[in-house]
Amino acid sequence: MTPSATTSGASKAKTRAPLANRETPAEIQATAKPETQTADAIDWPPSNQYSDEPPLETTLHLRQMMLLLNCLQWLWKDRDDFFAAGNLSVYYSPRKRKDEDVRGPDFFVALDTQPHPRRSWTVWDEGGKYPNVIVELLSESTAEVDRTTKKQLYADIFRTPEYFWYDPDSQEFQGFALIRGKYQPIDPNDKGWMWSEQLQLYLGIHKEQLRYFSSEGVLVPTPDEAAIVAQEKAVIAQEEAANAQEEAANAQEALSSEQRKAAKLADKLRELGVDPDEL
């Protein structure tokens, strides 16, 4: 196995992994193994079969999966060219069968596709498309498979451009980019974040959770966090508007006071036989 990059503080690698040798989705599609694109002429049952994945191991794993899903969907709420899912079966049988060749990544993103709901991801119904990014959440029962068997599968068969794994318990975090058909470690930056060329986002640990960050280093919020920020901004805007209104009222009162003083002075001058308009 290729040595992996870690998020230890001692690592002072460059901000992003080199991109020149990374395979693009088009190149990966063009070099996909022929057997994944063929099928028997057998009339199998409809391909809208439900996903058949076991539940995630702990509430930590469930919350982490939902965090990745919800944050990306909020960030890309105006986009209609991706599909993201968690714990959903990926069927990839070259014979178009759903009783063989199935895996269920904990989280994946497919680009250049429609976002409509799916019962499962069926490769032959998706034009031969596999996920662009996969994240596996390590646990005691799955870690060995995630680091070996699945990593090999995602490189050799899925040809998924980027593969990450994260352990919600130990905070182990590693990422790989597909380069010339092999996964190579993605170098973390000085914060331990790893750049995803596919998502155009960093992935990194924040408060013991795997989160997204923009290219400028800004944390991608959850919908709830975004709502809180929006509410705080609204309160600040209301306070500023109230302050501006109060300042305007004070200025008007000051003007009125000066006008009253000027009027009294004019009246006094007239009493003294002086026309204030001629002064």
- State the low-pLDDT regions, or none: 1-15, 34-45
Helical residue percent band: 25-40%
Shape: elongated
- The mean pLDDT is 84
What about the largest sheet? Answer: 6 strands, mixed
Strand order of the largest sheet: 1-4-6-7-8-9
Helix/strand order, N-terminal first: HHEEEEEEHHEEEEEEH
Structural class: alpha+beta
Q: Gap between N and C termini, in Å?
A: 97 Å
Summary, kept brief:
Helix content is 31%, strand content 18%. It is of the alpha+beta class and 279 residues long. The longest helix has 49 residues, at 223-271.
How would you portray this structure in words?
The structure is a single chain. A six-stranded mixed sheet has the order 1-4-6-7-8-9. Helices cover 31% and strands 18% of the residues. The chain has helices at residues 25-30, 59-75, 143-147, 149-158, 223-271; strands at 82-86, 90-91, 102-103, 107-111, 121-122, 133-137, 162-166, 173-179, 182-185, 194-196, 201-206, 209-213. The chain is built from five helices and twelve strands. The longest helix is centred in the last third of the chain and has 49 residues, at 223-271.
List the helices and strands and how they pair.
Blueprint: H1 25-30, H2 59-75, E1 82-86, E2 90-91, E3 102-103, E4 107-111, E5 121-122, E6 133-137, H3 143-147, H4 149-158, E7 162-166, E8 173-179, E9 182-185, E10 194-196, E11 201-206, E12 209-213, H5 223-271
Parallel strand pairs: 2-5, 6-7
Antiparallel strand pairs: 1-4, 2-3, 4-6, 7-8, 8-9, 10-11, 11-12
